[in-house]
């Protein structure tokens, strides 16, 4: 084509050397390329942009925001330049070979970028699909990106050295060990991501607790090699994906789906305050709406038992009697059963633990009707505020270690006693 162009110019009465004709052809290719660039980017892409902005379809907006159409335009420009060079320039020339090599590299680059844009757009669209929420799409797409990058790199190298890609692939066989070492983390991350998804172990949005990595918060991203967790103090913890398979972690998703969050907390009762209820105590406690039916039933049960066995109740070791601690446990259970913010369809009990030097532990085991952290803490605090305030009504008191104030009070009492004795001796 370049030779025909020179002959046509000579027929028109113009004399051009081969160099002048080559420069003219290159200039013509450049002008055509600029014109095509203008058409693509000033007309076609602006039309596509208007369609994407006015469209309600998510895929159009996603593809445009990820610059898919722009990269396809650059890809087509490279193809057009390659075709022009093949048509206009003489074959087997250094200029043609150089232009073709550059355009092939250009096309390979934008093929790779186009694949990246498609994958990124698909990932954006998948975020709104609940059916795809549990799949590790980010990790899978990153794996595809790595594979595509390796393929494009092999093709680019084969273009530069003028050899078949198969020759390069055959040479890579000897480098398998090196490749496995370099891509160890991505390979392990890919396998771990598939296992996490297949076994439904972790999803974005789950509350993950992994003390070995200092992670305690919501999962915000599951990538090929890392999992990002936003902790409750708003810091970000990054965990290797394969660590979630090799190590243990706690996923609180089950608690959130159940709709109830567990309360398991103890109060320690001073053992020296535990005793039997007197008739006056029973009469007073019967005024409680929560305890009235329980005390009536229990009193009748104990009375029948004692009469049946003809026991001498003048001694406290004979017969059955109600204790203040047992009555308190019954009251607390009825109190929890009458709270609307406590789940009645889940385990609910008040139990006594093994006594120790710390006192007698009374444990509340229940589930709140909400899983929200702030509401859960408020409910739990309200329950134990009530427990601390109601203990004196049963003649009970909390057990706690002596404080500096206690020792100070004892010292003051001792000083007062000594002063009183000195005054009496005088």
UniProtKB/TrEMBL annotation:
<dbReference type="Pfam" id="PF00924">
    <property type="entry name" value="MS_channel_2nd"/>
</dbReference>
<dbReference type="Pfam" id="PF21082">
    <property type="entry name" value="MS_channel_3rd"/>
</dbReference>
<keyword id="KW-0346">Stress response</keyword>
<keyword id="KW-0472">Membrane</keyword>
<comment type="similarity">
    <text>Belongs to the MscS (TC 1.A.23) family.</text>
</comment>
<dbReference type="GO" id="GO:0005886">
    <property type="term" value="C:plasma membrane"/>
</dbReference>
<dbReference type="InterPro" id="IPR023408">
    <property type="entry name" value="MscS_beta-dom_sf"/>
</dbReference>
<dbReference type="InterPro" id="IPR030192">
    <property type="entry name" value="YbdG"/>
</dbReference>
<feature type="domain" description="Mechanosensitive ion channel MscS C-terminal">
    <location>
        <begin position="332"/>
        <end position="397"/>
    </location>
</feature>
<feature type="transmembrane region" description="Helical">
    <location>
        <begin position="101"/>
        <end position="123"/>
    </location>
</feature>
<feature type="transmembrane region" description="Helical">
    <location>
        <begin position="20"/>
        <end position="48"/>
    </location>
</feature>
<keyword id="KW-1003">Cell membrane</keyword>
<feature type="transmembrane region" description="Helical">
    <location>
        <begin position="68"/>
        <end position="89"/>
    </location>
</feature>
<dbReference type="GO" id="GO:0008381">
    <property type="term" value="F:mechanosensitive monoatomic ion channel activity"/>
</dbReference>
<keyword id="KW-0997">Cell inner membrane</keyword>
<dbReference type="GO" id="GO:0071470">
    <property type="term" value="P:cellular response to osmotic stress"/>
</dbReference>
<protein>
    <recommendedName>
        <fullName>Mechanosensing system component YbdG</fullName>
    </recommendedName>
</protein>
<feature type="domain" description="Mechanosensitive ion channel MscS">
    <location>
        <begin position="185"/>
        <end position="253"/>
    </location>
</feature>
<keyword id="KW-0812">Transmembrane</keyword>
<feature type="transmembrane region" description="Helical">
    <location>
        <begin position="167"/>
        <end position="183"/>
    </location>
</feature>
<dbReference type="InterPro" id="IPR010920">
    <property type="entry name" value="LSM_dom_sf"/>
</dbReference>
<dbReference type="InterPro" id="IPR006685">
    <property type="entry name" value="MscS_channel_2nd"/>
</dbReference>
<feature type="transmembrane region" description="Helical">
    <location>
        <begin position="144"/>
        <end position="161"/>
    </location>
</feature>
<dbReference type="InterPro" id="IPR049278">
    <property type="entry name" value="MS_channel_C"/>
</dbReference>
<keyword id="KW-1133">Transmembrane helix</keyword>
């Amino acid at each position: 084509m370049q030779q025909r162009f020179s002959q046509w110019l000579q027929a028109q009465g113009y004399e051009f050397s081969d160099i002048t004709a080559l420069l003219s052809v290159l200039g013509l290719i450049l002008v055509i390329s600029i014109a095509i660039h203008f058409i693509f980017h000033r007309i076609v892409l602006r039309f596509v942009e208007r369609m994407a902005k006015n469209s309600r379809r998510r895929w159009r907006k996603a593809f445009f925001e990820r610059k898919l159409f722009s990269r396809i335009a650059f890809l087509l420009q490279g193809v057009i330049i390659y075709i022009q060079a093949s048509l206009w320039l003489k074959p087997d020339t250094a200029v043609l070979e150089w232009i073709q090599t550059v355009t092939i590299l250009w096309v390979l680059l934008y093929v790779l970028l186009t694949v990246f844009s498609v994958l990124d757009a698909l990932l954006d669209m998948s975020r709104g699909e609940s059916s795809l929420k549990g799949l590790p799409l980010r990790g899978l797409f990153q794996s595809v990106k790595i594979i595509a990058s390796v393929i494009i790199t092999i093709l680019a190298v084969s273009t530069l050295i003028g050899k078949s890609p198969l020759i390069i692939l055959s040479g890579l066989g000897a480098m398998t060990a090196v490749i496995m070492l370099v891509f160890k983390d991505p390979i392990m991350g890919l396998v771990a991501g598939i296992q996490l998804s297949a076994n439904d172990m972790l999803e974005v949005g789950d509350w993950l607790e992994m003390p070995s990595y200092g992670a305690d918060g919501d999962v915000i991203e599951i990538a090929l090699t890392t999992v990002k967790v936003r902790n409750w103090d708003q810091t970000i913890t990054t965990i290797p994906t394969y660590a979630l398979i090799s190590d243990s972690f706690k996923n609180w998703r089950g608690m959130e789906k159940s709709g109830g969050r567990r309360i398991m907390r103890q109060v320690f009762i001073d053992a020296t305050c535990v005793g039997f209820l007197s008739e006056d105590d029973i009469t007073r406690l019967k005024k409680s709406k929560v305890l009235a039916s329980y005390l009536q039933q229990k009193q009748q049960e104990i009375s029948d038992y004692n009469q049946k066995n003809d026991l001498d109740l003048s001694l406290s070791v004979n017969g059955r009697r109600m204790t203040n601690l047992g009555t308190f446990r019954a009251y607390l259970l009825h109190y929890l059963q009458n709270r609307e913010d406590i789940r009645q369809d889940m385990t609910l009990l008040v139990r006594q633990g093994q006594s120790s030097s710390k006192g007698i532990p009374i444990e509340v085991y229940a589930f709140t009707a909400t899983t929200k952290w702030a509401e859960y803490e408020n409910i739990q605090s309200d329950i134990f505020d009530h427990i601390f305030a109601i203990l004196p009504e049963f003649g009970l008191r909390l057990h706690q270690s002596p404080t500096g104030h206690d020792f100070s009070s004892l010292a003051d009492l001792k000083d007062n006693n000594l002063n009183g004795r000195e005054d009496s001796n005088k």
